Amino acid sequence: MKFTLHTAEQARKLKKSHDVETRAEESTFVFARNFFKNPRMLGSVIPSSRYLVTQLLRDVDWQRARVIVELGPGVGTISREILKRMRPDAVLVVFEINDEFVKHLRQNFHDPRLRVQHRSGAEVVEALRELGLGKADYAIAGIPFSIMTDEDRMSVLRNCREALVQGGSMLVYQFSSKVRADLEKLYGRVHRQFEPRNILPAHVFHCVKE
After folding, report:
1. Which of 10, 32, 87, 173 is most buried, taking the most CB atoms under 10 A from its CB?
2. pTM of the prediction?
């Protein structure tokens, strides 16, 4: 009997491990396929590395964070790590305009704290109001600001700033440092970090709404 139970437990663990690996492979495939469709929009053929995720989320106060906004979650690499760290009563609202990524997120994430919005990052304030949520404690963005028009880029950045509580933070990761000047106009001081181990190496900007 003990042998049977032990074997069953091993089988469950193996199946869980296999399911995780399968989801990871599927996510990488979906991301790569979309990269080849539009490489400028994604910048890299693979999702963000664990090094970038760690660097990006290192200063988040998870006890304080009740509402978190993420722009451009893609296949959910960073979203998954945010959900792992979030409070049980917190909410993560992600904004994605890519149809295939939205479908992937809705099919592969079943956490009730996640709200997937198929809309632009310029609509954060409106979306939070429609969802009945207060202002965000954190806004995290990895969308390609460097290839956007000045008008579109500032529209998203201003909307995100408006959506933040006083003392809230905006965390931005980019393969280019072009967005820094715009962040300085809106937030004043901008703390910059660099993660060379990501593919491609990435800039991480941390801004606080004061």
Report:
1. 173
2. 0.81
How far is C-alpha 64 from the chain's CA centre? 18
Helix runs in 59-98, H state only: 77-85
**Residue 208 burial (CB count, 10 A):** 16
pLDDT tens-place string over residues 162-185 = 999 999 999 999 999 999 999 999
- Structural domain spans, the chain: 3-208
- Helix, strand, or coil here: 51? helix
- Pairing state of beta strands 202-208 and 164-174? antiparallel
Phi, psi of 172 (to 5 degrees): -125, 130
Indicate the residue type of 198.
N
What is the torsional sign of CA 58, 195, 70, 117? negative
Residues of the chain with pLDDT under 50: 14-22, 24, 29, 31-32, 34-45
pLDDT at 20: 40
3-208 classified as CATH 2.50.20.20: no
What percent of the chain shows pLDDT beyond 70? 78
User: Hey, what amino acid is at 201?
Assistant: P
Residue 8 structure tokens? 């069953």
Q: Is the peptide bond before 71 cis (omega within 30 degrees of 0)?
A: no
